[in-house]
TrEMBL record:
Source organism per UniProt: Tardibacter chloracetimidivorans
SUPFAM superfamilies: Trm112p-like (SSF158997)
PANTHER family for this protein: PROTEIN PREY, MITOCHONDRIAL, ZGC:162634
Pfam families documented for this protein: Trm112p
Protein name: UPF0434 protein BSL82_14095
Lineage: Bacteria, Pseudomonadati, Pseudomonadota, Alphaproteobacteria, Sphingomonadales
GO cellular component terms, semicolon-separated: cytosol
Protein family: Belongs to the UPF0434 family.
Amino acid sequence: MTNASSAALDPKLLEILVCPLTRGPLIYDRERNELISKQAGLAYSIRDGIPVMLPDEARPLGEGEA
């Protein structure tokens, strides 16, 4: 049984999603189940297979991540 929160993100969805702040590209971090915006310095979580693209709920990237 696969956990829905750790399910892989649809590659087609990743192609069309952009950072809501910078309109820049996002990088899928499968290990953390997040979408990373290096330009904005934010990581957007993916909950139940749905990206939460709200800057207020995004995690700031640490120094080593940016």
